Task: structure prediction
Amino acid sequence: MLKTTYVMIALLGFGQSVLAQEVNVYSARQPELIEPIFQAFTGETGINVNSVFMDKGMIERLTAEGEHSPADLILTTDIANLSAIVASGVTQPVKSALIEAAIPAEFRDPGQMWFGITLRARVIYASRERVAEGEVTTYEDLADPKWHGRLCTRSGLHNYNLALLSAEIAHHGAEGAQIWAAGLKANLARRPEGGDRDQAKAIWSGVCDIALGNTYYIGEMMQDDEQKQWAQAVRVDFPIFEDGGTHVNISGMAMTSSAPNHENALKLMEFLVSHKAQELYANLNFEYPLAAGVAVPPLVDSWGSLTSDNTSLADIAANRAQAVTIMENVDFDG
Result:
């Protein structure tokens, strides 16, 4: 009964134009950030994009719909979400020479189940007034006692911080990563809370001097009259791992196992890695394009140079369970 209900809801959400040239998307991206790209695709191909926004419950819905799901394509953020969707068995591998040529190997699944679209970096928000340039240059620096009582972050169990800790495991092993996480906790100015924007606000208000945050939130805050002052109070610093680059994550895509419009879904996937779409996507979301030769948005470029870490995202995803255990061991959120 549940499966039938979900299928009926999905059909109502997409409409029932069975014979139309269309592709159906379940998207975790905010509609205003993705619709202009869909419109560009339709203008170029004549294929209509029917999109349903869902920030929660995507796996449950696809599982309930099963082989009768009308969804062709999934768009979401973070390697943890992509990996969980693949692990649930609701996607299929995609073979495309065009996508493989456009997207570097470390940002696509070795089994061709998911592909990155754009890149975001997990960086340091540093107080322009209280932190000099060059004071923090590595992620390992964040565990230095000199930052005691000066660091803010969101929950250690949030996907963004778990991915960063998973990368620490890849670089330094589980023991080294736990020591680092314990050092991070010891330096907290307050218990982890809120989102990345709240950390910038905390720096602006003097609660802390440095924070972990994703790059694109700075761009989003600059578009908001109230939050602009928070963004202007911080400097974006690009820390690196001692033996690597800056930790990055992705927004990405996967084709559903049902995909009733398989060919159109593949066309949309290939469009999303084209120079035109990459430029649109990056500018709308203040993220980094993954396809070579596409210019970084001017605002994003103004933050400084990004040298992304080359640790495979598939390897980072594989360390997630261990990262959760470490965060619980050090009682990071306690």
Q: What stands out?
A: The two ends are 42 Å apart (CA to CA).
